[in-house]
């Protein structure tokens, strides 16, 4: 009979569907811990390779709800706080973060959790902090408000494949040989590789000296942002970038520029841009002395992240984090449907693999120029465009981003449903259903649109003529891809 894990070695991870939390869970398992995950959308964890480990327990709940958090904390010796409402974008994230932290602290106190571990933001203290860093400091205060010991690890830019800050850096350098930038490019920073962050997060649990401490964590290098861009250019074998700092670019203008050039939404980019004006370097090496490891330099960390991108080894990505809406409720309004079907001489599993390759670098099987045009237009009006790409080139999971679509349902060999996240005067869904036939597979593709007002109606009838090019061509492309191996 399998023995149950000892409560003394059970820890709670919030934010397991996010970038850092999704990578932390398997490292905790490797270190001998049992892990409980609190997730608002547990289905987003279904494709993670570690989810089938018997030491992993997933509890559905909302971090805003005290009872949900307390239920998840029962029997845990420590709890990781890795949630950040900035991903929800828009104003008010600071007050939301403060409320979340207070709720978490109260639940920890009521359940007897021994320690809270929080990954915060590195930077100067005192007055003059950006709103982003000031919010991080307030979260630290909120987590400590009930007397439960808090270990705070403060990090600056995290370098790793799929992280938001790394993607901003990569896209800026790859797309802009000449950059007109704010003055913050002369500010020093101390980036840290994601693997080094994960080491600190795990090691602190077995390092009693870290209990109740605030520790700065960073890599061995302290470049300016301008120097960091040149390192990225060199790692990508690109010519040296020309960087022209000017005093007139505000954080707001910078965030819109980041939005246009990178996959990051301007609402998420703004607090990040504001934070760049503060110098973010470690004040001491306490963390390094208490939890020794080999720290990767900037060049090595960037090259490792790029290699993981090329080899399709991206464990988690920033684009998969955040709230996950379910399939839209189509009742109570006009719904336009464009449904097409095609018979394919291949088994459903093979056809489904071909369907799951849409988006990202592979494209959309037909009329890619139209998709690219739609992506550019979407970026201009504040949408995500096509630059989010996809986390994995072959496989999709619930909650994954596929360019400007989001996976809302995936049943291998049966159904793939996507919800549009581009700017639209309505709500759109694209779904593929597969049915086995005597000769192979019947693939049905349905595009549904629920318009908002007259503008929504005008949009549907304006793009309807293009559906024949885009969707018919996509079905034919999927058929070619599915039958090619057999030929």
Plain-language structure description:
The protein has a 7-stranded parallel beta sheet with strand order 3-2-1-4-5-6-10, sandwiched between helices. A 6-stranded antiparallel beta sheet has the order 12-17-16-15-14-13. The chain has a two-stranded parallel ribbon with strand order 7-9. The N and C termini lie far apart (50 Å). Helix content is 36%, strand content 20%. It has 2 domains: 312 residues, NAD(P)-binding Rossmann-like Domain (Rossmann fold); 157 residues, 2-Layer Sandwich (Alpha-D-Glucose-1,6-Bisphosphate, Chain A, domain 4). By secondary structure, it is α/β, with parallel strands linked by helices. The relative contact order is 0.10. The N terminus is likely disordered. The protein is globular, with a radius of gyration of 23 Å. Strand 1, helix 1 and strand 2 form a beta-alpha-beta unit. It is built from 14 helices and 17 strands.
What is the element layout, followed by pairings?
Elements: E1 10-14, H1 19-30, E2 34-39, E3 56-60, H2 66-73, E4 78-81, H3 93-111, E5 115-121, H4 131-143, E6 150-155, E7 158-159, H5 164-175, E8 178-181, E9 192-193, H6 194-203, E10 214-217, H7 225-235, E11 242-245, H8 251-261, H9 266-275, H10 286-290, H11 298-310, E12 336-344, H12 348-355, H13 368-380, E13 401-402, E14 405-411, E15 415-420, E16 426-437, E17 440-451, H14 453-483
Helix pairs in contact: 1-6, 2-3, 3-4, 5-7, 7-11, 8-9, 12-14
The second-level CATH architecture of the largest domain is: 3-Layer(aba) Sandwich
SSE class: alpha/beta
| Count of DSSP H/I helices | 14
| CATH fourth-tier homologous superfamily of the largest domain | NAD(P)-binding Rossmann-like Domain
Contiguous low-pLDDT stretches (5 residues minimum) are 1-8, 324-333
Overall structural domain count: 2
């Amino acid at each position: 009979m399998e023995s149950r894990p000892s409560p003394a070695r059970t820890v709670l991870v919030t934010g397991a569907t996010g970038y850092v939390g999704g990578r932390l869970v398997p490292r905790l398992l490797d270190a001998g811990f049992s892990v409980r995950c609190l997730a608002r959308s547990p289905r987003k964890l279904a494709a993670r390779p570690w989810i089938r480990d018997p030491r992993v327990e997933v509890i559905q709940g909302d971090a805003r709800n005290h009872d949900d958090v307390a239920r998840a904390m029962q029997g845990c010796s420590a709890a990781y706080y890795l949630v950040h409402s900035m991903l929800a974008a828009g104003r008010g994230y600071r007050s939301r973060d403060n409320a979340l932290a207070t709720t978490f602290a109260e639940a920890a106190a009521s359940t007897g959790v021994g320690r809270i571990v929080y990954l915060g933001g590195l930077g100067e203290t005192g007055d003059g902090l950006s709103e982003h860093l000031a919010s991080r400091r307030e979260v630290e205060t909120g987590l400590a408000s009930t007397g439960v010991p808090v270990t705070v690890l403060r990090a600056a830019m995290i370098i790793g494949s799929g992280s938001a800050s790394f993607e901003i850096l990569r896209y800026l350098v790859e797309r802009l040989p000449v950059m007109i930038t704010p003055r913050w490019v002369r500010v020093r920073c101390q980036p840290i590789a994601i693997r080094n962050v994960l080491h600190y997060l795990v090691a602190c649990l077995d390092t009693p000296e870290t209990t109740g401490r605030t520790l700065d964590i960073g890599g061995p290098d302290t470049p300016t942002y301008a120097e960091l861009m040149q390192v990225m250019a060199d790692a990508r074998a690109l010519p040296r970038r020309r960087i022209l700092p000017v005093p007139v670019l505000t954080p707001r203008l910078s965030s819109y520029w980041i939005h246009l050039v990178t996959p990051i939404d301007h609402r998420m980019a703004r607090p990040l841009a504001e934070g760049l004006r503060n110098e973010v370097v470690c004040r001491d090496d306490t963390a390094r002395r208490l939890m020794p490891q080999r720290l990767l330099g900037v060049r090595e960390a960037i090259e490792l992240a790029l290699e993981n991108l090329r080899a399709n080894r991206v464990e988690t990505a920033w684009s998969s984090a955040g709230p996950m809406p379910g399939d839209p409720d189509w009742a109570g309004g006009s719904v336009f449907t464009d449904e097409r079907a095609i018979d394919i001489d291949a088994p459903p599993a093979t056809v489904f693999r071909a369907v799951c390759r849409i988006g990202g670098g592979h494209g959309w099987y037909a009329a890619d120029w139209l998709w690219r045009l739609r992506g550019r237009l979407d970026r201009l009006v504040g949408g995500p465009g096509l630059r989010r790409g996809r986390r994995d080139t072959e496989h999709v999971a619930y909650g994954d981003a596929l360019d400007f679509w989001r996976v809302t349902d995936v049943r291998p060999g049966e159904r793939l449903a996507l919800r549009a996240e581009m700017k639209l005067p309505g709500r759109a869904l694209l779904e593929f259903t597969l049915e086995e036939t005597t000769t192979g597979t019947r693939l049905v593709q349905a595009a549904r649109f629920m318009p908002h007002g007259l503008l929504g109606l005008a949009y549907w009838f304006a793009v309807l003529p293009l559906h024949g090019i885009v969707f018919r061509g996509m079905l034919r492309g999927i058929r070619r891809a599915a039958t090619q191996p057999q030929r």
